[in-house]
Amino acid sequence: MSTTHRLALIPGDGIGQEVIPPATAVLDAVGRRHGITFTYDTLDWSCERYAHEGAMMPADGLDRIAGHDAILLGAVGWPGVPDHVSLWGLLIPIRRRFAQYVNLRPIAVFDGVRSPLADASGVDFVVVRENSEGEYSEVGGRVGTDLALQEAVFTRTGVSRIADYAFALAEQRRKHVVSATKSNGIIHSMPFWDEIVAERAARHPDVAWRSEHIDALAAKLVLDPRSIDVIVASNLFGDILSDLAAAVAGSIGIAPSGNLNPEREFPSMFEPVHGSAPDIAGKDLANPLGAIWSAAMLLEHLGHAEAAEEVTAAMRAQLAEGSRTKDLGGDVGTTEFTAQFLARL
Ligand code: ATP
Ligand code: MG
C-alpha cells in the first residue's frame, strides 16, 4: 500500500532554513520504509522576503497551500523586523484560515538531556493550548492617554472543542487532564471556561481531571512535573506554560509543536518551538531535533503512528548514546548530526 502526501515547506529565517532539510530527510527515510512518498513545495515566505517585497508571503499565499496535506515550518523572525510582522503577516493568518485551534506541545525529558531540575527523568506530558481565541484578541483599545482596555474572548464552541481534544488525547495516554484556570481573580471568562470543561469532562468518565489555578499549576510544573499527563489551557495560559515546560525539559532545540486542525478539513502546521536563532544562524550549529520531532508529529497527524514512533525512538537512542549538537553539550554540527541520525534511523 502506498500513500503520497503533499507538504508545504516554509523554512523561514535563520536556522529555520538549516533544520528543515534534516526534517525532510528524516521524512523521506522513514517514508521509504512505510510506503509513504512526500512531495514538497518549498516557499520562501520569511522576513527575508518581507525585506525585499514588503510582505511575508504573497497575497494569494493561503490559497496556494490550502490543498496541501500539512505545513512544515522552520522559524520566522529576524532582528530589525518587528515580531508583529511575522506574527500577523504569516503565523496568525495561517492559524486562522486553517482553523488550527489546537496548539500541541509535547514535553519529554530524554535520557542524556540535562534539565534544570535536579531529577526530571520520566517527565512526559502534553500541553494543549487553545490557539484561536481567549486573551489574545483585538477587542479593546486606548481611551485617551491614561486608559487601555483589552477584552478576552471565550466562546462556547471554542472552549468545548479544545476541551474535547484534550480529553480525547488523555484517553490515549495516562487518562488524566489538568485544566488551567484563574477563576478566583478572573471572574467572568474563567468560571465560563471551568463550567464548559466540566461539561465536556462528563463525556469522558474514564479520564480523571481537575481544575488548577494557573499560579499553582506553574509551581507544580517545576516541583512535580511527573504527576502531569495532559494540560488544557487558554491561549495566554497555554503560551506561558508551554515555554515553562520546554525549559523544564532541558532544551529549546528539541521542543516541537503542532498547530492542529483536528477535523483535518484544512492543513495543520508543525514547527519547532525555537526561533530563528540569529546568534548561531549559518554556522552549522543548530540542533535539528526540534524540527525532526515536529516532523514526527506531522507523521502521526497524517495517520502514520508507527513511522512517527520510529522517529521518536531514534531520537531517544541518539540522545542517550549518540553524539549531540553543542546546545546539548556535544561537539557535532547540524550536518554531521543529521548524517548520524539518518544512519541510526
Ligand atoms: P523568537 O523570538 O523567534 O522566539 P528567540 O531569539 O526568542 O526567537 P530562539 O531563536 O529560539 O529564541 O533562540 C534562543 C536561544 O536558544 C538562542 O541563543 C539560540 O541560539 C538557542 N537556540 C534556539 N534554537 C536552537 C537550536 N535548534 N539549536 C541550538 N540552539 C538553539
Ligand atoms: Mg522568543
TrEMBL record:
Listed GO MF terms: D-malate dehydrogenase (decarboxylating) (NAD+) activity; magnesium ion binding; NAD binding
Domain Isopropylmalate dehydrogenase-like: 6-341
Reactions accelerated catalytically: (R)-malate + NAD(+) = pyruvate + CO2 + NADH
Enzyme's top EC category: oxidoreductase
Pfam families listed in its UniProt record: Iso_dh (PF00180)
NCBIfam families xref list: TTC
Family listed: Belongs to the isocitrate and isopropylmalate dehydrogenases family.
Protein name, UniProt field: D-malate dehydrogenase (decarboxylating)
Highest classification ranks of the organism: Bacteria, Bacillati, Actinomycetota, Actinomycetes, Pseudonocardiales
